[in-house]
Structures are given as structure tokens and as C-alpha cells.
Amino acid sequence: MSKPISVALVGATGLVxxxxxxxxxESSLPLSRLTLLASARSAGTRLEHAGxxxxxxxxxxxxxxxxxxxxxxxxxxxxxxxxxRAWAEGCAVVDASPAFRLEPDVPLVVPEVNGAAxxxxxxxxxxxxxxxxxxxxxxxxxxLHAAAGLERVVATTLEPAASAGHRAVQQLERxxxxxxxxxxxxxxxxxxxxxxxxxxxxxxxxxxxxxTDAEEGLGAELRKVLGAPGLRxxxxxxxxxxxxxxxxxxxxxxxxxxxxxxARDLLRRSPGVKVLDATAEGVYPMPMLAVNDxxxxxxxxxxxxxxxxxxxxxxxxxxxxxxxxxxxxQILERxxxxx
Length: 339
Known about the structure:
By secondary structure, the protein is an alpha/beta fold. It has helices spanning about 15-25, 75-90, 110-115, 130-150, 165-180, 215-225, 260-270, 285-290, 320-335, and strands at about 5-10, 30-35, 45-50, 50-55, 70, 90-95, 125-130, 150-160, 230-240, 245-255, 275, 295-305, 310-315. The strands form two sheets. Strands 3-4-2-1-5-6-7 form a seven-stranded mixed β-sheet, with helices on both faces. A six-stranded mixed β-sheet has the order 9-8-10-13-12-11.
């Protein structure tokens, strides 16, 4: 077991921050101290952890002195400002935001796939965690890539309200209640169009070529985590009227033959994966089955007969657990052994 470490949690009051508190409580990592930080408007809040109420403060100079490691669950601009300050004060950072994910000297880590990359944290004092879709897909695609060599991945990700934050969850709840009671919901919110009983084919900001930054980021993050710089990825991200639980419909082309039955058996033996694939009994991954589960669920595994070496599958995960908090804490556990 690692020696006790002191930890700071930045963004403690948000959805991911609260999920990290839960994951820390479930982890075997011993903590000597836990410091909670958030925006100035959240300062003074108290959150429960391990039977105690802990105060929340705003980040300030000296906040990271004497802290071994910090988990950042804050927007990218906050991470860019405060992560270098934390490292200057001797505190290593595990970051959930996109700020550092594609920086060449910052490791981007999914522990089941490339956990040893954490060793590279000393270059910048930061280890980055991928976005929720990339984290979940890496857990499933990693074993397939090692066995058969991925050449191309086409993924449609179905993003729940929670992946856009607490305001989007509230928006979906409010809109659903209004519509069920015969009222037209007020326009505007965290999602730019009505989400209840609707699909919004936009996650992130649009780029000049018509993709969004989230779609472009998914491909880049998969290539980095899998160590597959030549992997071709086409992604479409859709916001769906589900509160929690993220799904992806995936088509993969491999360099070598990997029949569906062999892929299924391989995934059953892979860490962090649960195979739910008994279609005759109506058993397959669904968001409601993934909530509060740290595993990535995979099913509907089948051969793609339209190409020589192709697979189709459905991947589902809890975007607040393996897609964020669990992956962050798993990285922290590895990092603690190096401090």
C-alpha cells in the first residue's frame, strides 16, 4: 500500500468533483489530508467525505504547498492557470479538462491501457485524463488493437445531459416536466436546443470543416492513448435526452482477422470490461445498466460483413465514473507510488 498522501480536489462542488469524492472514498489509497477547492462563488460550501464535513475554499497562492497531488475537475482555462502554479508549489496534477490532453510532454492515461505512461508526469507535473468517450472506448479498443491492429474506427457517441454538467441535467428535467404537463419549455440553457424528447447533433463547438472540437478530440485522444498515430477515426457526437450513461455505436476495421466470437472472448478477459452480449435473451449494454458502475459495458459484438476485417459493437459507460472520476482516481493511485 502507498504511504498516505495529501490531496487537493479542484472543482469539488461540480458533478465530476462530487463523483471524485465518492471514488476517493471507495479507493484503498490512504489520504493524510483532503483539501477541497472550487470557484469563489462556491467558497464556504461544506461537503461530506469519510464521515466529516470539509470546507470548500477558492484557489489562492500557496493553496498547493504541502499537497502531494491535486485532481482538477475544472474548466480548461482554470487548469491552464492553476496547474502550473500547483506544480511550482510541489504538487503534481491529474487533470480532467482538455487543457493538456494533446500536449506532447503530458501523458494522457487510461490505466487499463497505458498506465505506465504516468511515469512521464515530471516533464510538466501533469497527467491528463481523456474525455469520457475516449476513456471508455480506449478500455474496449485497447485489447482489440493489441490483438489485431486497429486501422479505422467509426464511432457515433450518444452523450447524456450529465456530460454537459449540472445545468444540462437541470435543463432536461425542467423541459421534460414542462412538456409532460402541456407547457412549452423556456428556450435556452446549457444545451442550445430543447433536449427533452429530442436529439441534438452537436457536442462542442463547430470547426471550419463541420466537425466539432469534441469529435476531433475523440480521434486525437484515441490515437494518443492507444499509441496508434496512424489510426483513422471518424466520430459523430449527439446529445441525447438521457440524464446519465454514455453510449457509443462503433465500427472498427482491423489489420488482421479477429472474428466476433474471438473478440468477445478477448474482451471478457480484459480489465475494466463487462461483456453483456446475449441478444436472444435481450441482454446488451444500456445506459441504465452502466450508472454507478466503474466497468465499461460492451455488447452487440458482431462481424461487419461489408469489409474484410471488421467488427461492430456497442459500448456503454457511466460518464461520471470511468469516463471521469474513476479514471482520475486510478491515475492518482499510480501517481502516488511515484511521489
